[in-house]
Amino acid sequence: MIAAAGKGTRAYPRTTYIPKPLFEFQGKTILERNVELMQSTFRVKKIYIIVGHLKEMVLSEIEKIRKNHRDVEIIPSPWTTKGLASDIASLEPQIHSPFITILGDEFYFYPDHKKFIQTLRKHPKLIASIGVQKTSLLSRIRKNYSVELQGDRILELVEKPSDPPNNLLGLGSYLFTPPYFEYFKQTPPSVKNGIIEITDVIDLMAKKSRKVFATELNVEYFNINSMQDYHHAVYEIRNEEFARFKTTLIVPTKNNERSIADVIVDFRGKVDEILIVDSGSTDKTLEITKKEKRKLFPVKPKGTRITSENRFGKGSGPHPEISRSS
Fold it and tell me: What are the Glycosyltransferase 2-like domain coordinates in residue numbering (predicted)?
């Protein structure tokens, strides 16, 4: 189950027109990445996605995801407007076995959620397992929740603690079993907002059953509460991935025999590849390019000189040949 219904008021004003689960990282929405996480890690056959805020946009994204992931059944389910715990409980008629729950506004970079499977094998009689992560930033724990442990058994959960008991950050990844639904019914609403909080349900499960365990994840975790969180995540991911990118220099030419060799020499070793996009040279430009063993992409000239239009194509997009070369 993926919770993708919240309004995300702390990321206002963007969330007035884009729900947080549809924020993108490297060309994919958080929602699609979490679907991929569930499918690749747990081989799930069915995923319930809770929808509410900007429902039509989320449903449209679900349709796109379905086209790329045809071997999993994705089922939208309406939110209760009463919080995550109630949204999960609304699925009681459909769920009869252990199930993973992930918050729709949390992005896991290089996830290792397979550790939930290891926890289940270690504790086959567990009724829940909660994802946690060690962190040196206590401010992150204060924004989420903390757990007190005995070994890997969870003794207590504390929502947004002012004084965290340890360096364990509670994440929005959970492994639940059907007993969850009974514990939900036993959990009183919060005196602050009248809503049954997910942390209160888990806390009750932990104290009554002593069968709730922590699963420590070694993962880059981004909780997108605000636009600042989103921009920080984008920066961190790009910074880590930058070394994997290939740097390409594209050199448009037409009768540049006197300068092309200097350009190639100047950038040799500074970029991964040099592409020569030639617009009908009649001098020795092509001969020099071939001698330097550089990739050559001839294009049909559109006039007597290379203009910004035939160099890069009409409008702001690249010329078709350059697009194909990249």
Answer: 249-315
